[in-house]
Design brief:
Elements lengths: L21 H9 L3 H16 L10 H12 L4 H11 L4 H10 L2 H14 L6 H8 L4 H7 L2 H6 L2 H14 L9 H5 L3 H16 L6 H10 L2 H4 L8
């Protein structure tokens, strides 16, 4: 199962089609051994049923910390996101989990945002992740939620950060739509490529792909040849 916003071969864990409810849960269950499957069912049922009391940390947050140990590191992100969705975590809860969580839990929050937050109120979490230098966190930050809600200036700088930290551009959700005809992004990419060339450094392959998206078909014919 390949997530729409995770680049193949990028080292990011598999986060399947999380928003598909029972389909996502059933698909994950089928890949787990019996003990892990039972644990997942209990964790999701408890998260869905728990009534959170003000000022008290809900029990399902403990499950987030156990996810990889119980279900394996390959499925850890998927399990954490499904727990957050089952718990119907709101922006305040997601913010608390992100601020106090591990890198794994922060990634889960970012992956869960497009399924739990409809407006831009969680953008500060994305902005915080984009200040990090962890490629897996950055890849999670440029998912569908960022594609919907990041302002153009911030989105352009997020894309550039992906390029110079080695995050594949395949990780950037909705890239063709956001880059389409963006003359300012084209200027920034040209400047970045010129700086790399002047310093004797290679230009990231993904830069040429994005640059082509920013230009019209007529302009694309004038693009510099990609380095082999």
């Amino acid at each position: 199962m390949t997530p729409p916003h995770t680049a193949p071969g990028s080292g990011a864990p598999d986060v399947p089609t999380i928003a598909r409810g029972h389909e996502a849960r059933d698909g994950l269950r089928a890949s787990l051994p019996d003990a892990a499957r039972a644990w997942l069912d209990q964790a999701l049922d408890e998260a869905a049923a728990e009534q959170v009391e003000p000022g008290r940390v809900p029990g399902w947050e403990v499950r987030l910390a156990e996810a990889a140990r119980r279900c394996g590191t390959t499925h850890g992100d998927s399990v954490r996101v499904l727990i957050l969705i089952a718990a119907r975590a709101d922006t305040a809860v997601l913010t608390r989990v992100y601020r106090h969580g591990t890198a794994d839990e922060r990634r889960a929050v970012l992956h869960a945002l497009p399924h739990l937050v409809s407006g831009p109120e969680a953008v500060p979490l994305v902005e915080d992740a984009l200040r990090a230098n962890d490629p897996r966190l950055l890849a999670a930050a440029v998912g569908p939620y960022a594609a919907r809600h990041l302002a153009p200036h911030l989105w352009r700088h997020a894309l550039l950060k992906c390029l110079f930290t080695g995050v594949p551009v395949d990780a950037i959700a909705d890239l063709p739509r956001r880059a389409d005809g963006d003359a300012e992004l084209a200027r920034m990419l040209d400047d970045y490529a010129a700086e790399r060339d002047a310093a004797g450094r290679g230009v990231p392959e993904g830069l040429y792909r994005v640059l082509a998206l920013t230009r019209t078909a007529a302009d694309t014919a004038g693009l510099p040849a990609k380095e082999s």
